[in-house]
Amino acid sequence: MDIKEEKKEIRKHIRTLKGEQSMAEKESASEKIAQKLLKLDEISSSHTILLYHSLPDEVLTEKLIHYLHSPEGGSKRIILPIVDGEYLTLKEYTPDKLECGYRSIMEPSGGRIIDPAEVEFAVIPGMAFDSVCNRMGRGKGFYDKLLPHLNCKKVGLSYDFQIVERIPCDEHDMPLDMVISESYVYCRPL
Q1: Residue 43's pLDDT is what?
Q2: For the chain, what is the domain count?
Q3: What is the pTM of this model?
């Protein structure tokens, strides 16, 4: 089986597992994941943080976005991606300036485009991860094109069931620095 077929099988398996999770299970796990993320020193020391507005089957990030942007969360500058053709464009989050975009993902409307070099800490979604922080997305390659331009710590958020034994990797696939699930924190081996 080639890498493309292996990835297709993993995506199919993870989609099935995602469909078996109730909203209450997702909310509980997402809260545990967020608490682990918020304990990282890099979160408190970073001002500009890239997050993603979650799809219903992803680790839920809406509360995390609001919290980090609020004075209680450090009044962080939150950056969200916008699907722009084959690429992701980054824009600053403003609570009252969101609109429904690609795949009904909430995206910032208006405002200037943010250079990826401005991001001090990045939170990255994924379909599946492994224990050495390899990541597999949904197959469109949006984050594969963005990751090389981020010169900061990159952390994936994952439900426990999204951690697989091994992610098959192509040469363009970039590992993350860390993956956080509700039960584990995985760090990329140096």
Answers
A1: 95
A2: 1
A3: 0.93
